[in-house]
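Notes from the pairing session

We agreed to fold both candidates in a single pass and log them together. This is the raw record for the first candidate, unedited. Please don't reformat it; downstream parsing expects exactly this layout.

Candidate A
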Amino acid sequence: SATVRAGPLCVSSSLNMVDAFCATWKLVDSQNFDEYMKSLGVGFATRQVGNVTKPTIVISHEGDKVVIKTLSTFKNTEISFKLGEEFDETTADDRHVKSTVSLEGDNLVQVQRWDGKETKFVREIKDGKMVMTLTFEGVQAVRTYEKA
């Protein structure tokens, strides 16, 4: 007779889905990012830096946690989380947010909430590239990364 196991298999299969994202990614294209940052209320000087910075994103998983490191000449950030569990995050522009990352189909979806506001990042793999769509109050930016 088959043995039914609860819990861990779900986590494991979810992390297997994350494997497609596990790599080192270099920004190669950015569309409408300045407008997106402006909509968030990011100041002029920080936007100028954000527009010229080409970050490298390293995605991995350690045990049941996913780790996303964003590395650039401007600032390095790292988040570590379990899928579907809310965690505290300080963004590159110093917002203190509550973040949740989950898998929706083949997409890695991150929602940041603060002060009654919400922004959403959808990461998907298209033609071997990672395409990240950022949305805040109707303003959308698309950033495309290639494997480094």
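Candidate B (folded immediately after A)
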Amino acid sequence: MKKYVFLLPYVVSLLLLAACAKSQSDFVYKELEPSDFQRSLQAQNGMLLDVRTPEEYTKGHLSDALNIDYKNDDFESQLKKLDTTKTYFLYCKGGVRSEKAADLMKELGFKQVYNLDGGIDAWQEEGLPVSKQE
């Protein structure tokens, strides 16, 4: 019996690792080309997040996008206010900040995140619409 007591911590550790692996696999992340991003955004009931600075946002953004600045110190706390079970569509200028934001969202337990590959630059290169309204 004493032999098995020493095995107990290992068994518990394995079970915890398996549980963590399961929760990580529930996360859906996809990088989408601008046309696919637009179609998915229209087809799904998701929230559009622009993670650029407010200055970049006012120069032009996707319609109905919520601006949450990735470079701002309160970025993580702003994300924590969002519903982790909803679908989110992210973009920035070139795709780097939004990819980092998606990584953070994964850590925070978000379930489904789509990233605009190439950011708003790629979107505009394809001639897709941009809004300059607040």
